[in-house]
Amino acid sequence: MNQPEQSSILYGRKITVECPATVANLVCGFDILGMALKDPQDLIEMSVSDQPGIRISHADGYDLPTDPAQNVAGAALLDLMQGVEESVGFDLTITKLIKPGSGLGSSAASSAGAVVAANQLLGNRFSQKDLVRFAMAGEKVASGVKHADNIAPCIMGGITLIRSIFPLDIIQLSAPPMYVTVVHPQIEVRTSDARQILRKEVLLKDAIRQWGNIAGLVAGFLQKDYDLIGRSLEDVIIEPVRSILIPGFDEVKKASREAGALGGGISGSGPSIFMLSREAATAQNISVIMKDVYDSLGIDSKIYVTTLNNEGATIRNLT
Ligand SMILES: Nc1ncnc2c1ncn2[C@@H]1O[C@H](COP(=O)(O)OP(=O)(O)OP(=O)(O)O)[C@@H](O)[C@H]1O
Ligand SMILES: N[C@@H](CCO)C(=O)O
């Protein structure tokens, strides 16, 4: 290969990045709040060469596009490449364990993971904020809109607040230890569809209630006040519309609250539902409740009992 001698580009090396699932919105914070989970995670293997172009393959059964402009990972890399002067190309293999259309940030895991891997191979020349900006180009391909509420926690870990995307202003929030139970009923809800059904106007009385809840939730995280977190996990704007797309939603929510969940709701644009708990045993009990609800409806479901992921997308291997 024809490589510049002093380059900090890691030609000939191969990197593996773990890209976590994320829960966007956190019930009341549509498009502005999100958190990273320990489980599930996608994997991206990537190498850099002096052969221009982005070559994508999938080691999973999801039949996603490999054209870089159509695959969210490729779209994010194309955006990143606009800031790279050298003539380089990337080869990547994506192994998806986060099912597309799940509401668990499947698209964000690929776009965020791709730019984290590329940045490492390019000698860490970009900031985390730059990476969030590039990865949002992937979200635009997936849902038609740039939003960072999955991307930011996927890259930075923990819980993030997107105060603004133009210009990008991201605040990382501390939070007390919490367990997360997630059920993914095996139906697909595309984010683009789940956005189209939303009303474009909001009543002032609903807006007042919603921003009270958002402020309460953020204060609850920062003050480690579980009761305040629980009281604030309420959405009077998006959930009443979107929950109609999710069979079993009301039953899961009611039974989980009765079993001691702090609260929860739709994960991202659905159909996954998440519940936060203070204790591991409560989170386990809720997983049984969730399974029972979907078994009784005759719908297959996949359940995760997990915790917050404070690391975000992580480099596991560099060979
Ligand atoms: N690498 C990729 N990973 C996942 N989805 C991809 C990828 N490339 C393209 N897509 C497309 O993005 C869409 C899935 O994204 P979508 O936002 O609907 O689901 P999600 O990321 O699971 O949901 P949410 O953002 O609510 O958590 C599908 O249309 C899929 O074909
Ligand atoms: N905030 C986004 C997350 C899903 O990608 C939505 O709810 O549409």
TrEMBL record:
<dbReference type="InterPro" id="IPR006203">
    <property type="entry name" value="GHMP_knse_ATP-bd_CS"/>
</dbReference>
<dbReference type="Pfam" id="PF08544">
    <property type="entry name" value="GHMP_kinases_C"/>
</dbReference>
<comment type="pathway">
    <text>Amino-acid biosynthesis; L-threonine biosynthesis; L-threonine from L-aspartate: step 4/5.</text>
</comment>
<keyword id="KW-0418">Kinase</keyword>
<comment type="function">
    <text>Catalyzes the ATP-dependent phosphorylation of L-homoserine to L-homoserine phosphate.</text>
</comment>
<protein>
    <recommendedName>
        <fullName>Homoserine kinase</fullName>
        <ecNumber>2.7.1.39</ecNumber>
    </recommendedName>
</protein>
<keyword id="KW-0808">Transferase</keyword>
<feature type="binding site">
    <location>
        <begin position="99"/>
        <end position="109"/>
    </location>
    <ligand>
        <name>ATP</name>
    </ligand>
</feature>
<dbReference type="InterPro" id="IPR013750">
    <property type="entry name" value="GHMP_kinase_C_dom"/>
</dbReference>
<dbReference type="InterPro" id="IPR000870">
    <property type="entry name" value="Homoserine_kinase"/>
</dbReference>
<feature type="domain" description="GHMP kinase N-terminal">
    <location>
        <begin position="77"/>
        <end position="158"/>
    </location>
</feature>
<dbReference type="InterPro" id="IPR020568">
    <property type="entry name" value="Ribosomal_Su5_D2-typ_SF"/>
</dbReference>
<keyword id="KW-0791">Threonine biosynthesis</keyword>
<dbReference type="InterPro" id="IPR006204">
    <property type="entry name" value="GHMP_kinase_N_dom"/>
</dbReference>
<dbReference type="Pfam" id="PF00288">
    <property type="entry name" value="GHMP_kinases_N"/>
</dbReference>
<feature type="domain" description="GHMP kinase C-terminal">
    <location>
        <begin position="218"/>
        <end position="294"/>
    </location>
</feature>
<comment type="similarity">
    <text>Belongs to the GHMP kinase family. Homoserine kinase subfamily.</text>
</comment>
<keyword id="KW-0028">Amino-acid biosynthesis</keyword>
<keyword id="KW-0963">Cytoplasm</keyword>
<keyword id="KW-0067">ATP-binding</keyword>
<keyword id="KW-0547">Nucleotide-binding</keyword>
<dbReference type="InterPro" id="IPR036554">
    <property type="entry name" value="GHMP_kinase_C_sf"/>
</dbReference>
<dbReference type="InterPro" id="IPR014721">
    <property type="entry name" value="Ribsml_uS5_D2-typ_fold_subgr"/>
</dbReference>
<dbReference type="GO" id="GO:0016301">
    <property type="term" value="F:kinase activity"/>
</dbReference>
